[in-house]
Queue: 3 jobs
Job 1
Amino acid sequence: MATLVLGGARSGKSAHAEGLMPSEHATYVATARVDPGDGEWAARIAAHVARRPSGWRTVEPADLAGFLAEVTGPVIVDDLATWLAGVMDDRGVWDGSDEGGLDDVRRECGRLVGAVGASAAELVLVSAEVGLGVVPATRSGRLFRDQLGMLNASLAERCVEVVLLVAGIPLRLR
């Protein structure tokens, strides 16, 4: 069974998703990449780490789809927007000129969606909802918004529950 928790920046989506997990044991899949030169980003990551129960195991798999295909038990993935940004970084697609790289991004998203659909684990997936804001002014911003929107929609099709957090309030969509 999979649950998708969507929300905007500072909507409370991560805390809500964490509250769906058992406190005694769960696997927390961290997708953020640490940048040693960015103290503010490191502080955000540390705040997430500090609020996790001590019984949780944290993993940072290089192959998220492969990991989800094999893992069992309760698992939270936080978050897919950060994961997608990393995939897009790795493929160098931000200027939109490399269609082959963008095809690779789409294939990787497809692998992830397939793994979620086939997973035996109790999954809680966290992702940013990017479809409610203004159209980004840059090509890279529009590209990211479009890719994440498509990923979220594909995942929502495979999830039993979909929740949108707005101003800290969970709205059950399914």
Job 2
Amino acid sequence: MIKKAFSVKFLPFFMLVISLNACAIVQPWERGDLAKPHMALDPYPLQSAFQAHNYGSREAGSSSSAAQGGGCGCY
């Protein structure tokens, strides 16, 4: 019973220590590799914004933006 209480008590601390192990310091000469376009979460942000605007204009009820218009494409 004591071993179980001990392990449950230190489980969050153990998980924190393991998750901090994945953090790494990026050196200045390595930042250029991480800044390449194919490393971005959204490689085409302007195209994605344009598509979201078009979709929001057509489907006014399901748009995730604040500006919602009718089916005609107007606000």
Job 3
Amino acid sequence: MRLVLRILGTWLIGLALILLVIDGTKSLAANTLLFASLGEVWTQLHPPSLEAVSSFFESRFFADLLDAAMQALLTYPAFAVLGVPGIVLALLGRRPRRERFLRQEQI
């Protein structure tokens, strides 16, 4: 299970870094700070899937709440939306740290 979490976290961090490099290149070219939102990136990649997710949320019980959360999430920078869960998953998948204590005579 830890392996799956670490692999998924690493992939998400890698995608976030790719998106950050793309945003950085666009920012350098425009001479201003530009970040592509998740909605823009998703629309560029595959618009029908964005519409499918929206229609799926409309058919759920808390449709208004889900729609508001989805719209808020789509306005955030894409690298942050992918990077933060990636970091959390990578940290959850790491090996538990064991504290090793030494006795006085072992020092």
